[in-house]
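seq:
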Amino acid sequence: MLTLDGIHTYYAKSHILHGVSLDVRAGEVVGLLGRNGVGKSTTLKTIMGIVRPAGGRIAFEGRDIAGQAPYRLARLGIAYVPEDRRIFRLLSVLENLRTGLDRPAVSGERRQALLDKVYASFPILAERRHQAGGTLSGGEQQMLAIARAMMLEPRIIPSRACRSLSTSPTACTSWKRVWSATTRRRPISASTPLSSTSTSESERTMLPVDQILVQIVNGLVNGMILALVASGLTLIFGIMDIVNFAHGDLFMLGAYIGTTAFLTTGNFWVALVASVLAMAVIGAGLQVTALRPLVGRDPLTTILATFGLSLVIQNYALWQYGPVPRKIVEPITGHFRLFYVEYPWYRLLIAVLSAAIIGGLYLFMKYGKHGIWIRATTQDRVMAAAMGIPVPWVHTVVFAIGAGMAAASGVLFGPTVGVNHAMGFDFTLRAFVVVVVGGMGNLGGSILASIFISLLESLAAIWVSPAQAVIVSFVALIITLLVRPTGLFVPTPK
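struct:
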């Protein structure tokens, strides 16, 4: 079933495996014995494709699999259970199981049968199926790691986990043997103030409470559009560990595409959809061609690459559209009385649509199959790949989603200001402030931080000019880095 022939594996210049050979036949249990550091875990990782062999041959059911991606091996019938469990701690027990269960061509009846079988073997997992994996005890997490592997219906399971379950000191166990053993032995923006709220001499005589309430509305509206931009940036950083300095320019390019679509169709909503779809495709192309080869490299490399992309996009926009600002006509033009100002309905529409898009993203991430894949990859991309999740394509989809959200915010914001080739830089700065204050990679924190920063700037604009009010966001950034570097809205670990 599985054959290793003369495998050599290196970590950098360290030669770990020296011509390892073994053969596992169907129904067999093969154990690797040896002291720490001799290469037992490396052998299993090499089989699973987590570490690439430098030489030798690995065959599974007669097929050469050496060097293949882990998610492809998982789909061939190899499931990996690491020694340290590596469950997805922030996903629930059921969501952990779904990372292996939600596979193509698996019927609903088959999925339920697999779940019933696992729950029969590990009743405690059935009781705690909605509980976060990280809150389980060590033994229960081990059960979950093995149950998660069972969801793939594998033919063979490379594992260093069986000793803790008193099943056997097994390093490589066939699917049938693991199943019988485990069933038998159950272990117990713009954040600047809106132009409609600029204060004339007569407005300064109004009650301060009126000004404060109007500026709070401004802050909420600006905060939602900033949250839409920052959510995409946070999503990209959280799953890819890429600091995307071109994100604001994706916002700008999406706004320009929206102006082109609007001039062509005359319909704002068609322009919005067209811009989102076009930027999603462009974002996917940029990730595959420019960023995918850099995944896992020095962060400075990706910073320089995205900065270069930023310059390319800016200069392309200047060449294609020129220096004269363009504008999209808002779909609704009415106003309503808000204390002492005539407030545009469209600005409230911006907040509602931004909230709807962010809410849709939340529902997709929380309940969708691919949303669970994204969350799993965010927590542990190696284990996600071992569960059959195509991590490189998850990265591409996430970058496409981030680019699409930037485009949506650009089109929504376009009617309030002129669209120009330099507008992305301001949003890049603000989005990075928000991401740091909210917590790097924390989607909910970035949304709260967007509203928080926008409210600070809007309220500060009551006493100082809008240009000076921007300073408060950088003051908040500095204080956050000094007092709570992990972010103001990151839950304190228990």
